[in-house]
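Suppose you are handed a protein chain with no further information: no name, no annotation, nothing but its sequence. What can you learn? This example shows the usual starting point.
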Amino acid sequence: MARLLVVEDDAAISEPLVRALAREGRPRLAILMLTARSSELDEVLGLDAGADDYLTKPFSLSVLSARVRVLLRRGGEDGAEREVAGVRVDPGARRAWRDGRELELSPKEFDLLALLVARAGEAVPRDEIMTTVWDENWWGSTKTLDTHVGWLRRKLGDPPVLTTVRGVGFRFEDG
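A reasonable first move is to predict its three-dimensional structure. Written in structure tokens, the prediction is:
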């Protein structure tokens, strides 16, 4: 699990917040500013300074959790390294590992794995995979997807982490 830095000077807020965020899991580093400063200028300055999102106090835990989920969904799509279920993917270097062992992947196998890891826990539809990994103008059979998933499963080894979601697509198991 990656670490998350929480900067909050009020212990009555920071301690329960840390516990709540720990329950959510932290697969990547994201910066969410929680602040009492609510002017438009403050928000723009915070985002320009590097925050991925900005939330003003008071806030509800459900809204905070939803914003954290959005930030985590974006994980892997911005070139950030991501690790789920012992599989680590580094999109910038185009390298992947399973339990510390580097995987030898073709370009399409890597793109497929990176997409599924970035969307870990979600059922990703076949047509979305084909559009993202191959091309929106792909004209061939989607059996090529099944073939690549089979090769990827063999390379990932046990325990299995790629699940077929019947009638939908595939899911990378996140736990």
